[in-house]
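One-letter codes give the sequence; each number marks local geometry. A record appears below:


***
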Amino acid sequence: MKRAALLAVALAAACGEPAPPAKAIAFPQGLESAAVEVREVALTYSAEAVVEAVRQSTVAAQISGRVVDIRFDVGDFVKKGEVIVRIDERAVTHAQEASEAQVREAQAALGNARASYERSRQLLAQKFISQAALDQAEAAYKAAQARVTALLAGAGQAATERSFATVVAPYSGVVAERHIELGEMASPGRPLMTGFDPSTLRVVATVPQAQVASIRALGKARIEVPSLGRWVDVKRITVVPAADPRTHTTRVRLDLPGDVRGIYPGVYARAHFAVGAAPKLLVPRAAVIRRSELTAVYVLGDDGRPLLRQVRLGAAGDERSVEVLAGLKPGERVALDPVKAGMSAPAG
């Protein structure tokens, strides 16, 4: 029977009858796509950069003493005026009390010297004492006045030193580093905490001197943070009026908006300075796949089948699109989900 069946198939083929249809390939419904289009984009010069804080400072101790309280740690947000560290203030408190006692003693002596001086003036008017005795009483009175003034200044200094036992935040910001532990001894000048203001961030880039004129002329730039996949518009550009004579480069500061979140000092970034504009063929970045040395996209044919096609990309573009130098034509549609398109692409 098998031979008969095979013979029947052969006879049918010989007679020109069509072979059984191949099984249809199913493609996913709703595969999102976008058109390759020509748009005018800004020509940019890209430079490596780093994020830094405009306001970043290290708070240090101003008196000696044991640290008795630490209220914030790395990553905490601190408001201006909040207490961040407390130092044992008993020694400075005693010093302040001693200074205040000396002031009270000097004030009592001043009162006695004033009364003695007034009596001496009356006695001189009555010719009971000499002018020399009056001069001596006046000198004692003025010396008592000077001593009170000096001791009042000392008491004020002691009160100021006592206030240094409570370390407060100079401005609102985020704690970046803590340099001391609870129970350790603080000493004048020893760092306690380092913080920065996240609303005053900027990016610093180094550019060749040949690009400075174009950067100043347009005054537009965008910042790319590769680690976060984010692009940020620049608020202001400042070209530092100094150049490095060894590398012939100039530093450029780019102020970021105050509402930027997730970016902190030291993060690597790229500065894209606008230096002109030109029409470019663009493809969505989401459609591009990279496999080793292969850069490609899935192009949708007339029948809706996604076909893998190698492309060569350029440097122009933005966070959504990238320039295509070869491999695509305007109007062609590419799949925005390469993974899904690859699962449904025909083999071979």
Notes: The two ends are 36 Å apart (CA to CA). Residues 146 and 246 are 60 Å apart (CA to CA).
